Amino acid sequence: MTMRAAPQKAALSPRATIDAADWLGLAVAPTCALMASISAVGSPAMTMCSAASAFAPINDMALMYVLMSLFHLSPWMKLLSARSRRPDTSVTQTEGD
Fold this sequence. Notes:
The structure is a single chain. The protein is mainly α. The protein has helices at residues 14-41, 44-49, 60-71, 74-85. The radius of gyration is 24 Å and the shape is flat. The N and C termini lie far apart (78 Å). Keywords: Membrane, Transmembrane, Transmembrane helix. The chain crosses the membrane at residues 21-42, 62-80.
């Protein structure tokens, strides 16, 4: 039995794929927040027809987008915690300062 090596395909490096996934993860929360604000404003006819409009100023779709935005905040939290753990440039202080 003879085995041949398959020609190497030009593929993205694993780090580039992770970076693209990271950026996509960071884009979800603000996008959902924007969609929540658009859904909350909505059309006046849509809010007048809603049975719960007198009780809740936010409709079901806006609530769903707010929850999605909250659930997708973890990439932002990871980014902020990584930045806080990163050592900043040291400021040299001399005696007497």
